[in-house]
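quick one before i forget lol
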Amino acid sequence: MRTALEGARRGTPRPELLSQRHKPAALLKEIAHWLDEAKAEDLVTIDLAGKSSIGDFMVIASGRSDRHVGAIAEQIQKKLKARGLGRVRIEGLEACDWVLLDTGDIIVHVFRPEVREFYNLEKMWSADRPGEQTAH
């Protein structure tokens, strides 16, 4: 019988991680809670179903300064690793204007407010695809 460590060495996911991967809504709740604990501001969640195959959800939040953005991102990364999601891709920690954490199912963006306003991801990802209309 293999141990969890042997499975990890061979690239075989542990059973408890398989169940976590298939529950992005539960992970989304945890991420929102962790962002709140880290004092992130203006949290927005966007459901990507039908809009993109890059993930299930996008979370956008702001930090008050570059140091706050970096601290939020590092805290989220640490919590994800403790939850068994150690292979989270992270970009932007060098400058901390905008840090992206990609769990595979959920993409988390943490911005300084002025950078968030410039890129305006909420508007871009909330828009309908060309040819689609929302029901009124």
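fyi The radius of gyration is 16 Å.
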